[in-house]
Each structure stands twice: as C-alpha cells, then as structure tokens.
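Person: At home tonight, work slowly through the protein below, taking as long as you need, and write a paragraph about the fold.
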Amino acid sequence: MVDSWERARHVLREAGLDPGRLAHLRPLTGGTYNTVEELRLTDGNRYVLKVPPPATTPGLRHERRLLVSEAEFYRSAAGVEVPAPRLVTLRDDFLLMTACPGEAWDDTLTDAEHLTLRTELGREAARLHRVTGPGFGYPSGALGPLAAGWRTAFTTMFDAVLDDARRYGARLPRPVDAVARTASSAYGALEEVTVPRLVHFDLWRGNILVDRSAGGPRVGGLIDGERMFWGDPVAEFVSLALLGDIREDEAFLAGYREAGGRVGFDAPVRLRYALYRAYLYLIMLTETVPREAGEEHQRWVQERVAPELVAALDEIEDTAAS
C-alpha cells in the first residue's frame, strides 16, 4: 500500500520543490480513473497530483497514457491564456499541476449568472480551438501515431471503442455491428475537417470550475484534460451540452462566435456532431464494465445515456437519407 504523504513528498522532490513544505494532502473525488490529490504547501500554494492506475487495470483502448494528453492540454491552454491548471512536472507515473480557483459548476447559480457563465465559456472554448496540432488523434499515441487526416484518426477512435464494447460485452441499445454500420454512413462528412485543433472533449460541468473570489462568478479553470485530442472543434460541443444539444444553448454560441469561433449546422456538421455524440455515449456505456460500475450508475446510463446514443444514431440515419 503506497503511503500518500510519502508519494506526495517524492513528487515534490522530483518537481524541484521542498517536500518538507507539504502541509496538507486532500483526496479529490469525482474522477473514475486516476487517483487525484490536492497538495497544499506551507506558503499557501496549491497543487494537484494525478497518479494513473496500475498498467494491469482494465480499461478502454484509448485510455493508455492519458496523462500525456492531459499535459498537452495544459501546455496548449497556457499558450492562449485559457484558465486551466499549469503543468509543473510530468513523469510516467504521475502528473503534477497547479490548482485552479473555484469549485465545480453546480446548481446554485441564478439564471442570470448561468447565462453569463455560458457566454464566457463559449469565449474560452473558441480560444482553445485556435490551437492547432501536428496531426489528428490522441497525443498519447494510445491508438497509434497521429494521422494526416481526420477521417483516418476518428474512424480509428470509433473502431477502438466498438472493439471495447465487443470485448467487454457492453450493454448497448443497438447491436455493435448495427452501430458501426450507421456510423460509417456519416464518415464522408469527416473529410471537411482539414486542420487538427485542440479538443478537450470532457467539458461537462464537473470539469468547469466556477470562481467567486472576486465577486460575480467567473470561469476559474477548465480541468481534467486527459481526454484531449487533436481534431474537429465540433466534437467539443458534445460534452459542453452533455445529454443535451448545443444548438439550443444560445448564450454559449454567442460567446463562441464573439471570440472568433466559427460554427454553423449544415448537413455535414450535423452528421459530424451526431457522430461525436455517438462516440462519447458509446464510451460512457462501455466503460461501466471495466470500471465495475454499481447498480445505481448502471441504471442511470441505461435510462439517460442509452437513449441519447439512439437519438444520435437516428439523426445520422435521417440526415444521411435526406
């Protein structure tokens, strides 16, 4: 059993910080994969430590070397001044970053505050999407090297989670082969994406910190960038409207366009948006098996996530047919 304090002191030493200044260690909950802890030093500085599970831990194919992708996200966010943790040290067995101010987005906001934050979030997302990468796909290399084309990269990503669903016997609302056939009918729309851009792909409310320290709420940080890939900015809209539809979020879209983000929802974009929704919801349904999710969470994904996968597949079929 690894002693958390001793591990934290080792990490601080590796990062060139005085391990004797470690004053407080607090486990952070909410994640389902890595071990995450907040380290507070005697000078008041706060850091977040992430430690991956053992290599033998069951997972999905794209989940190898997640910390590499997360570190890339923080480097990239810093370059466009998007509020996010700043990378301190990356090793094979840990990632150390600065802590951001604020708490996870919750239901305590007023309607006016909510709209203001959604507009600000749109601006931050547009800034992220200015960052371009050296190729398409996961920086971790979990599914192979970056690809020259988005269609090649994304179909590899989609096929990997389909293989995971087969391997783990995931409970899906449609047979895996039927999901594959429907998805493939939309792959032509991926050819429109020619520039690999930064996509966080996990910007649900739990990964958006809201900071109230200066008065009104502001976005304090975009965290947990481990699912990041180089790809199509439209894919970002899935988690930003998790189990919903970004096309109905006028405040977010206004902020996104205000900061230079370009988005319209013609037929090819609708097909791609539906593909990316199907991809995320496939992940959410399949990961319950290696995570050994409890009965309550299993019931939630079947009641909430499975219908959204069906809706995404139906939209692909309807849009492709028309």
Q: What stands out?
A: Residues 295-321 form the longest helix (27 residues). The beta strands are 22-27, 35-41, 46-51, 87-91, 94-98, 103-104, 197-199, 208-211, 218-222, 229-231.
